[in-house]
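Minutes, project huddle
Topic: does the predicted pose make sense with pyridoxal-5'-phosphate bound?
PN asked that the exact inputs be recorded in the minutes so nobody has to dig through chat later. Recorded below.
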Amino acid sequence: MSDVPERLAGPHHPETIAIGHGYDAAAAYGAVKPPIVLTSTFTYPTAAAAKEAHRTFFQSTHPDEAEFIYARLDHPNLRMVQERFAALDGAEACAAFASGMAAISAVLLATVRPGDTVVHTAPLYGGTLGLLNGLLADLGVRAFAITDALAPAAIAEAMARATAAGRLALVMVESPANPTAGLTDIRAVVAAAKALGRSSHRPLVVVDNTFLGPFAQRPLEEGADLAITSLTKYAGGHSDVLGGAVTGSAAALLPVRKLRTSLGTHLDPFSAWLTLRSLETLPLRAERAARNAAAVAAFLNDHAKVTAVSYLGFLAEGTAARAVYDRQCRGAGSTFSFRIDGGEREAFAMLDRLRVIRMAVSLGGTETLICHSATTTHYSVAPEVRAAVGVDDASLRISIGLEHPDDLIADLDQALGAIRPLART
Ligand SMILES: *Cc1c(COP(=O)(O)O)cnc(C)c1O
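Predicted holo structure (tokens), as shared on screen:
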């Protein structure tokens, strides 16, 4: 043991974890890459082994240590991707799901009970908001928004309002927010939750980290109880697989995993295999996409037909947002919004002229994607609500990929040329 150099004994750097962690070649004929284990059920050498597998899975605090039973409970590819993603996110444990929304639904449904309340940052991902305003509202769970997630007083005020209306079960944070890039001071939310816990129920603090991911932001290190990542976005990274992950302590994940078994919303073997492969290049992709995004954001910021760019790298020195960004984030990511001089007509004219950049919702893929938020991702959001979160007819969201930035800039430049000065009446 002692002659293993410190740097090889681990813990390893995230880039190294991303390549090999969670897979042991000895378990699969020495294959350098893992097999896809397509089986719905697993056999036991003895009846006692079957009993022991069930005891470990259902009664211990570490179901990951059980022999496999049935693929809805756990399966080899699921375990591999969970182990690797947990290590990347600095977590003790991870539960992987069939999608980001499956992960969010499981966390909410495992935590809240009828009559409880939820506090959340705003804006929230549409699917999360739909769940809060739909099923959870029907179950008697009321949601309260934080008006300024950078101000401890506003965070405490929202929690006080929620606590007055029922047991505050959970605080759902999304930072940076989509599409505004609004930041939340995660540590301030954690401190407020702890302070509340001294006199009443301490709410669980959950952070949706999809926009930055484990290489640019680690919510668990800021004190959050659970972090949620849509693996569909940067982690999967090729726009060809859906998935979601919840990370946290083994104890905090236990009820979430138990509910996943009931709902049957685990990640399937092929999607787990694709995601595991994608994680190998996540640090590389995230870094290049962020560099490309910085170049494109700078171009847009200087363009006469662009009126605003909500890129995290542009946060002004001396602001509360910049202070939280400097402390909490290790990069600006590569998805941001910008506003053009015009409205829907001008936005559509510009979008229809793009040749390299594709028009699609979603983000975090190798390809650059752009969408007109008001008529796509925020289609079903009322105009006044959209306006309040800064989404109007002039707003476009762009997720920068791995193409050469000069080609992206040239494409945007020629398309922005389609915007004629508004005929003002
Ligand atoms: C896409 C997304 C989700 C949902 O993930 P799916 O994999 O599409 O279910 C949740 N939160 C954020 C911030 C997202 O961007």
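Observations noted during the meeting:
- The longest strand covers residues 168-174.
- The longest helix spans residues 269-302.
No decisions taken; revisit at the next huddle.
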